[in-house]
Design brief:
6 helices, globular, 165 residues, five-stranded mixed β-sheet, alpha+beta, single chain
Length: 165
């Protein structure tokens, strides 16, 4: 298998549904173990966007896939090269050494969307509007619409263009 340590990966994973508290906790813990950022949207459908060094994303996906799912599929995988060492005069050399993915990350941490307010604990459906708002704020709305099977909007950049910051 190809090791993707020198590549930044943002992977969009769609699930038929994601209700299990144990699986949701495992997703959060596994992302934290690998220092990955992104977001998890529980419900039906379930969706995870995970980003970080390629090898860490690959390990995360393998761990999550090992859980039992009705359906889990990677819909989009965006790959960007990690720059080696920035020029010292840029002043970001230390930050880039600490997190070579920092320039490409769209999320600061990995978290889970809250279930829709007032759903009384029966939050069976995903909060797609909240998810789309988060993606739009990060310039990822075209990819999000593609992953969720929504029609593109006229203002959307193509998903391929969104990959190349």
């Amino acid at each position: 298998a190809e090791y993707m340590g020198d590549v930044f990966v943002r992977e969009w994973i769609l699930f038929h549904h994601m209700y299990s508290g144990m699986k949701r906790k495992t997703i959060l813990e596994t992302a934290a173990q690998h220092a990955l950022t992104g977001v998890s949207m529980p419900g039906k459908p379930g969706l995870v966007v995970v980003e970080g060094p390629g090898g860490a994303v690959k390990a995360f996906v393998a761990a999550v896939r090992a859980l039992s799912w009705q359906k889990m599929s990677t819909k989009v995988q965006q790959k960007l090269p990690l720059s080696r060492a920035p020029a010292p005069e840029s002043g970001t050399a230390a930050a880039a050494a600490a997190d070579p993915c920092a320039a490409h990350r769209k999320w600061d941490a990995f978290g889970e969307l809250d279930s829709a307010p007032g759903s009384g604990g029966g939050g069976q459906h995903s909060d797609v509007s909240q998810f789309m708002a988060l993606c739009t704020a990060r310039g990822l709305q075209a990819v999000a619409r593609e992953v969720l099977g929504l029609a593109p909007q006229s203002g959307d950049a193509s998903p391929a263009a969104a990959a190349g910051d």
